[in-house]
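Kindly review this record before class:
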Amino acid sequence: MAMAQFSGRQSLRDIQSNQQAQRNKLYHLGAKPIARSTLARLNERQPAALYQTLFYRLQAQCQGLPGRQRFRFKNPLYSLDASMIDLSLKLFPWASYQAVDASVKLSVGLNHGTWIPEFVALGDGRESDLTQGRCFAFPSGSIVVFDKGYVDYQWFKSLTDKGVFFVTRLRAKTPYQIQELRTLPADSAVISDQIIQLSGSRALKREAPRLRLVEYCCPQTGKHYQFLTNHFGLSASTIAAIYKDRWQVELFFKAIKQSLQIKAFVGTSRNAVMTQLWIALIVYLLVAFARYAAQSGWTVQRMLRVLQMNLFERKTLQEILSPDPPSAEERVIQLRLVV
C-alpha cells in the first residue's frame, strides 16, 4: 500500500499489475507479489488503528529534528487546520454529511519548523473543525495559529491556562471593551495595538481571558485585518506575520492531495478509507524525515515526485537526493548534446 502511494497506483488490480511487472526486483528485496484478493482482505479486516499507531510511533522518531522556522523567537509554531476529502455518496454512504455529499475530514497541527504534522486526526465530514482541534495537546510555550473557524472562548481560556499561545482573527461584530492602547512603531503597517476584554454574554459566561487585538493593513493589497492573540510580548508586526505564515498548512494539504493517493480509494468501507489515509500520512512522514538528508531547496512534494521515478532503482537515498556532480566525461557528453 505504501508502494501504491509512491507510484501513484489507483486500484488493487493496478497495484497487483505493478508488482508483477517488478517481480525480479521484488525477488532481490526478499519480497514477492501479493494477490489482489489478499490485499482486499487485509484492507477490509486489518484495523486502521494499527496504521494510526504506526504513524505516531514513527513520528516519535522525528522529535528533536532541527527546525527551519523563519522567525527569531524560540517558541514552536503550529498551524491548525482541517481539510475535507471528498467521497462519492453512492460508493461511501457511511460518509454522508449532506443530502448529496460525502467526505471525511483530516485535521492537522503542522509544525512550521520541521514541516511535520505532529497532531493528526481523521473524523467525519459533518464534525465541526473544533471537535478534533480541541483534542490536540499542544506543548506549553508553543504558538498555535488558526482561522476564525476555531474561535471558541472556553478553548481560549483552556489554552491560556496551559501556557499555550494562539493567533487568530476576530470575528465580525464581536463585542469587546478596550482596556489599554499600546504604542505603535513608526512607519509600520500596524494601525492599532490594544488590550481588550471580550464583553459578549457568551465570552463572559465562558470566562474568556484578556486578549490583545492587533489591526493591520496589508501593504500589498490594502486589506485590513484584526488579529486576536493571548501573546503580549511579541511585536504587533510579528503577530501579523505569524498569521500570514499559516499558509504553510495550506501548502501541506496541497502537497498530499497532489502527490499522494487520497482521492481514489482502493476500498469502499470506512476501515479501508481510513487505512489508506493513515498509510498516505506515514509515507509523507517518511519523506519529510528523509528531507533532512537532502540538499537545501528540496520540498516534500518535489521529493515524492523524484522518488516515484526511482522507486525500484538500485540507488541509495543519498544518491537520489544528493547526487554527485557530473564527471568530466559526462560534462563533455552534455556539451556535445548542447552543440
